[in-house]
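Hi again,

Forgot to attach this to my earlier email, sorry! This is the prediction with NAP bound. I've pasted everything inline since the attachment limit keeps bouncing my files.
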Amino acid sequence: MTAAGSDPTGPGDDGDAKAVRRVKATVYVATSLDGFIARSDGNLDWLPKVRSGSGNASEDYGYRALIDSVDFIVMGRRTYEKTMSLGEWPYGDKSVVVLASQPVDIPDHLASSVEVMSGPAPEIVRRLAERGAKHIYVDGGKTIHRFLEAGLIGRLIISRIPIVLGSGIPLFRPLTRDIRLRHIRSRPFRNGIVQSEYEVVA
Ligand SMILES: NC(=O)c1ccc[n+]([C@@H]2O[C@H](COP(=O)([O-])OP(=O)(O)OC[C@H]3O[C@@H](n4cnc5c(N)ncnc54)[C@H](OP(=O)(O)O)[C@@H]3O)[C@@H](O)[C@H]2O)c1
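Structure tokens for the complex follow:
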């Protein structure tokens, strides 16, 4: 799903534009109340631990359902490197695309599911569409920004953590236009997290 009224591939490329538009792209992030996704040094120590197990008592804020629903996870290099630094790879054998313009170290045990790509965001989506992608999860602040700016994001699910960090890596950055959203739902959790879902309308 892409933002109505924008053509992510530009004029004169109808087939590609249609293929790109058919790919639904979702952002799923946790932010501080003041809109940061990480401390300035990338630290995530302020995020509550997510229990992603399948037990009845676990609460994963819809994370597992989202991961199960996507064909590809597309993440920025910095998010990949942060994930790797945490030790345990959380995505199993789900296909992951790391966007990077510089070399990225992919360990052998992930080589069959993790690949590196670079290029303009519409081109990335077009390549994934060619490979049958229908729903992708876009992750990483700079990466989300580039996809949003290109009109490629259809849905945002933002979990606001009740903390003010004052500084950090922002979810949103300066844009060349406004992005209008439709509020779908908000869900409060007992621990104070409020998860809101929005659809990009234009
Ligand atoms: N709170 C949350 O839910 C959440 C979610 C995700 C991430 N995070 C955190 O956010 C931090 C990372 O975010 P970030 O904004 O710094 O960076 P990011 O988006 O993860 O990575 C940015 C890098 O990705 C590469 N990139 C992005 N688009 C590209 C493209 N189209 N082609 C080629 N390369 C592309 C570039 O790497 P090169 O420098 O190689 O060009 C760019 O510098 C980490 O600390 C992570 O843990 C938090």
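The chain is about 20% helix and 25% strand. Residues 121-130 form the longest helix (10 residues).

That should be everything now.

G.
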